[in-house]
Amino acid sequence: MKILVINAGSSSLKYQLIDMETERAEAKGGCERIGLEGSFLKHKANGKEVLIEEDMPNHQVAVKLVLEALVDKEHGAISSMKEIDAVGHRVVHSGEDFNCSVLITPEVLETIASNTELAPLHQPANITGINACRAIMPDTPMVAVFDTAFHSTMPDYAYMYGVPYEAYKNYKIRRYGFHGSSHLFVSEEAAKYLGKSKSELKIVTCHLGNGSSISAVNGGKCVDTSMGFTPLAGVPMGTRSGDVDPAIVEFLETKTGMNTAEVISYLNKKSGMAGISGVSSDFRDLSAAMEQGNDRARLALDMFAYATKKYVGAYAAAMGGIDCLVFTAGIGENDGYIREKVTDGLGFLGIAIDKAENKIRKGGIHDITANGGKVKVLVIPTNEELVIARDTARLSK
Ligand code: AMP
Fold first, then answer.
1. Does the N-terminal or the C-terminal CB of the chain have fewer CB atoms within 10 Å?
2. 147 among known catalytic residues
3. In what helix (H) or strand (E) does residue 170 lie, and over which residues does it extend?
4. How many other C-beta atoms are found inside a 10 Å radius of the C-beta of residue 314?
């Protein structure tokens, strides 16, 4: 069985063709600058990489080019489009309407569209990607896999905000959480690695990338997560502020003359590591700058590690203990300095890492637990596409 996984952004479309027998990507790539001048498709299959520069006025044209690349005699991975058994779509927001992945029907699509105001930057692009695929492959089953679904098991006292109950009832204001497929994947991988049933494990998963979120996974179920109503909440990120006192919004408006939308954009795009350091949102640049004595780069990294550490402690408290701590995504998988700073001083929880092992970069699951460490500390490469492909295969059979 072959599944095409689609992750559509406003001007981009990433894809992977996954063979479910091997669970490996046979082809992958992405279209960029859709609807803009200079659009291109980067496609990888059979060890070859090609750059296809073509006009892509919309997502439908992009999907057509992706399918052409997949069946191409030179650099394709399949001989005909009919070999694609189903398409799995990453959809950012399920609202409270879905707590798991679903087969896409016209009614499902309508419900997804009704949640657009909860993710105005992402949801329209996801819907455009689904419609583009349906137009070209009308008979192929399609499945929506939601970023929020894994977090739907949070108890009410964890997902509610301290605002009047009517704001929740009338406007769906609550914590939703994001990166769900990643938190699910790495928590399941951790259980497999430890040779234990997920039902007996208390795991804190740290998805630390351009966007970062931390989750408490108790018995295989998410019980809390650091992102909130939107992906702006939680720890400070590449360009996002993370949690701030909400009164800052009006204060900034008064001081700077920005309107509300401009302040929210300032918090989303100009803040976090980039805004604090004045150097970059990329942790590689921040580390290099810190090594050269840049104190604001040092401050940004310290703030990130401190905020992450606080969530680890909070979630150990929320679950009444912790058996395993997982680091994943671009920073979690690659940045030993951050892993060391996050875990430093957590010996009272039984968390200790082997500092020499932590400096080594390995592929696959990497156990960096110190000798005698009570809590397993694991670096696990995430694979959100595989989660999407697995759900798609299951629901489209
Ligand atoms: P992601 O969103 O998971 O793709 O993560 C992207 C981020 O991971 C980048 O912006 C970098 O900050 C970080 N990153 C990637 N590679 C490294 C590395 N080798 N060392 C430190 N940080 C890295």
1. C
2. yes
3. helix 165-171
4. 15
- Residue with CA at minimum distance from ligand 1 atom 8: 330
φ and ψ at residue 102, rounded to 5 degrees: -140, 150
CA distances from 266 to 118, 129, 276 (A): 19, 28, 12
362 — pLDDT class (breaks 50, 70, 90): confident
pLDDT greater than 90 at residue 198: yes
Q: Which fold has domain 2-146?
A: Nucleotidyltransferase; domain 5 (3.30.420)
CA 129: distance to chain centroid? Answer: 18
* Mean pLDDT for the chain overall: 96
Closest protein CA for atom 19 of ligand 1: 334
CATH code: domain 195-379 is 3.30.420.40
d(Cα 141, Cα 62) in Å, to the nearest integer?
Answer: 19
CA of 65 to the centre of ligand 1 (A): 29
pTM above the 0.90 mark? Answer: yes
What number of H helices and E strands is found in the chain? 15, 14
CA 395–ligand 1 middle distance (angstroms): 33
Tens digit of each residue's pLDDT (9 = 90 or more) over 48-103:
999 999 999 999 999 999 999 999 999 999 999 999 999 999 999 999 999 999 99
Burial degree of 117 (CB within 10 A; 0-12, 13-18, 19+): exposed
**């694991």: which residue's tokens?**
378
CA–CA dist 180, 252 (Å, integer)? 32
User: H or E segment at 213?
Assistant: strand 212-218
Is residue 355's pLDDT more than 90? Answer: yes
CA distance 123 to 103: 17
Ligand 1 centroid distance, CA of 258 (Å) = 31
Bridge partners, residue 43, by sequence: 29, 50
Which part of the chain has CATH 3.30.420.40? 2-146, 195-379
Ligand 1, CB cutoff 6 Å, lining residues: 209-210, 238, 282-284, 329-331, 334-335
Catalytic residue among 19, 97, 147, 295: 147
